[in-house]
Amino acid sequence: MSKITTELLLERAVPRSTRLRKIETLNLSKLQLKTGDLDPRLFSRLRHLQKLDLSDNLLDKFPNSLTLPDLRVLNCNNNQLEDVTALKQFPLLEELTYENNVYLTLNDDYKVMFLLENLRLLNGKDITKLANHVRHVNSRKLTSKVTAHWEKFFRDQLPEKHTAEQVKSIRKKFLKSVQTNVVYGPSSLSEFTRWRVKMIAEEFLSYSLGLELNSDTEPEEKAEENEEESTESPREAAEDVAQVTVTPSKRKRNHSKSGTGSKRSKSQANTEEEAEDVSAEPLHFLQCHSKGNSREDFKTQLWSCVFEPVLDSGARKDPIVSSSRTVATCGGESVCLIDCETGTVLKKYKVATEEFFSVAWTTLTMVISDSRKKAHNILAAAGRRGIVKLIHVAADFCYGEIKAHKKPIATVCFSPTQETHLFTASYDKRIALWDIGIPDCDYNFKASQLLVLEAASIPLRIALVPTCPEQYLLAGCEGGCFAWNIKLDKGEKSRPFEAIFQFPDDESMTTSHRVDGLAFLNDDVVVSKSSKPGCIYLWSWSRSFDAKGKGCQRTVSAVILAELEWSTTDMSYLTLSTCPAKGYVFCGDEKGSVWMYNLSSYTTAWGSPKGKRSERRISPAQILQWPELRVNGEQPPEILVNNVVSDPAFTYLVVLTSVNITAIWKKS
């Protein structure tokens, strides 16, 4: 039930009123209001409201249809606002304050100056002159640059007689290119500039060139007034899963001695051990992350999966039995729990306005109602909104959230030694360490930020060093591979990276490359994947990092142990994983295949102080090729394998794709 009623509005009016339509000044401060409490139907009756105080509440955004046509003064101080663009619905606004909203930046100030033409005072300062510059001079400069970019790079690409598909293609390329290449003003305003450039470019295409696109492209989903969260029962979740069938007669399996469809060097002859067929067979193909439970959804990308840990503390000491056959997967608006053996979707958690990118498990010892302590598995899920959801899986309950970053979270992971310590890596070029606390029997908890690691580019994958997980963290980023000292007794809360690693690049070494795959094969051997075609390296953490010596931000050469033969694609974000207990590395490709490498015979030699690099690229033990599938009688489109993960015992292999299909293989 909403906290705001007609009676409350009449009582909080200044002065008190007997009719909603007579209220001109309204004080709704310090009411613990959330966005969902702002009922547009009720607010639409405040036709003559001119001054509104919403300070000291819990608002994270404004609903898009509050309908306050005469609003002139708005106070939103001390909230949790993440976006200001919805304020354009108040065109007569003259005075606006939103101080102490930690997620708002200088870029948001510029957005409201552009959107609200009557705005004079922002956070108590007269912005009339600056706002005129933003609306006119800034817009003219950007429009000129956008037009010039079209003329120079794109005008000749569009034929005089063009099809709808050609328009769609050129529009997509132009919008991407212009936002990347058109720059203006200080870097601190780059987000605002990209926002305006996109707006100007769309107007330019639509009005100047008549390229308003009428196609089946899906419009950007509008955020709900209040995000919709739901947890489905096993029966409900099972009903959401489309039936995906394999055509056995045409299902191909590829022994590594056979041709792989990729270019292979003549020197890469397989040994018998490398060519071992591990006999993995497909068990299930599930379509359980569909948007709106649509059976026709082949667009939702699946990104992350992790096996649930076993609660028995004795079993957890042995990595071979430290996980169950239950796996958590995420993609689109949902997180699913799947029984790998039966293919049953046990639970499904949905947030209608979210796109989940990463999940991670931890086990917390919680106090239950009769004061006894009991271990429970907690799942953290995060994505595009920069918010971490904390889910008590056994109770089917999302008990809390952490607004960790203003920009999307690429990946999350828990410390293996501190059960409440969670790392979040974000598009804001920061990695944050949080203590999520332990909820009490009423699910009250307190989260706190312990550390912020400053990255030079967007972090994509993170890994704690197994021999010292409380001291060093590695991250694969858009601009290279970095290491940080994360020891909490060092004092400073915000830290730069301590080392950047360089890797072979043709004839030289380079630090500048996208690292979109990162994992430890054992206590020392790191596996990292570069966006450079077919480039997966194995290298020694200790031998590389020890060469750094003392000092900060040193460039060090990775001590390469081996290179893996992989696809020649330059497709990014097809990540890898490892199974340390069995010495395996897994990586999917752009054709739906899974490359599996058995490296157990190499690790002993690599572990010696003078272990030499393997001269030739190591071939996969086996490549699992994507079977011919039919979903509702039709074949899905081109399939990319975004992620592939095994349980610690390598009994099951879970494959996440770009076409909303989760494949589960089982090793015989």
Automatic annotation (TrEMBL):
Domain Leucine-rich repeat and WD repeat-containing protein 1 WD: residue ranges: 279-667
- State the compartments where it is located: Chromosome, Centromere, Kinetochore; Chromosome, Telomere; Cytoplasm, Cytoskeleton, Microtubule organizing center, Centrosome; Nucleus
Quick check: keyword Cell inner membrane in the entry? no
Under the heading PROSITE patterns, the entry gives: LRR, WD_REPEATS_1, WD_REPEATS_2, WD_REPEATS_REGION
Q: Name one GO molecular function term.
A: chromatin binding
A GO BP term, please? Answer: chromatin organization
Give a Pfam family name.
LRR_LRWD1
User: Acidic residues compositional bias: what residue ranges?
Assistant: 215-231
Q: Which PANTHER family match?
A: LEUCINE-RICH REPEAT AND WD REPEAT-CONTAINING PROTEIN 1, OPTICIN
Protein name from the UniProt record: Leucine-rich repeat and WD repeat-containing protein 1
Q: Which organism is it from?
A: Piprites chloris
Q: Which gene encodes it?
A: Lrwd1
